[in-house]
Amino acid sequence: QVQLVESGGGLVQAGGSLRLSCAASGRVFSISRMAWYRQPPGGQRDLVAAITNGGSTNYADSVKGRFTISRDNGNNTVYLQMNSLKPEDTAVYYCHARDRVGLVEYNSWGQGTQVTVSS
User: Fold this and answer.
1) Which residues have C-beta within 8 Å of that of residue 102, sequence separation ≥ 6?
2) Residue-level pLDDT at 45
3) Is the pLDDT of residue 74 over 90?
């Protein structure tokens, strides 16, 4: 099992920056992909950015050029650097890890961290 703990959320003005961190523990050796999702008030949880073990990344169109996902394998931590924040980025941000044991794939979620962008 993988445990995830997020940190770094908060309140920021439009145009500002925040960096989210997600520390993984437990069965980290079997993680193949880590990602950030977000869920705005009354909305659904959508992918923001993902990174594989090989370093490949993908982003939601709405954050391309503004957000950067990265990972520190030595510390089992993934980051989301968010620049040029907009009010529509306001959401609860969740860290996600996908790991595989044999043929079985598991999904783990963090508890979420609130990001609020004021106009």
Assistant:
1) none
2) 98
3) no
